[in-house]
Amino acid sequence: MTKDKESLEEEKNQNSEKSELNTLSYEEVLSQLEAAKEDSLRARAELENFKKRTSSELSNALKFANSELLSSLIPVLTSLEKATENLDDEKQTDKEGILLILNSFEKTLENFNIVPINPNGEEFDPEMHEAVSTVNESGEKDNFVIKTLERGWKLNERVVKPALVVVNKIN
After folding, report:
1. Every domain of the chain and the residues it spans
2. What is the per-residue pLDDT across 89-102, written as a single tens digit (0 to 9) for each?
3. How far apart are CA 72 and CA 161, in angstroms?
4. CB-based burial of residue 140 (10 Å sphere; 0-12 exposed, 13-18 middle, 19+ buried)?
5. Angle at the Cα of 99 (from 96 to 103), degrees rounded to 5?
């Protein structure tokens, strides 16, 4: 019963639209046609923009998918580096073994566009470096990294972890 009523109402609407079109002047029909063309072009442009935006977002998602993994691996790399610094000369073979593992680890990371930030002697860049402290050494340039406490890491040119550094500030 309700379907019959709905179909009757649809027919009435279609008939009223047809009769409305019959009463429109030629100029009014042309203006409606132009408006429909503009709406169509606008919808097409929106669709193209959506496709580009989605493609870009997908590309970035794939490009930086490893950042969470890298963030989890950074403490392991830092621990290996600290282990080599703290081994005394009596344990030279242990130190060499750890260095081999560390180098192998770093080469594997480089294959995935993950590179270390080692800024000794470079100008301080707040986007890539985190100043832990400052010193006042007159023989060094102002606002340059004096010492790297921990290396930073970049994934596809995006900083995942900034390098922890000591910066020279001349007063």
Report:
1. 2-63, 67-168
2. 677 778 888 888 88
3. 11
4. middle
5. 140
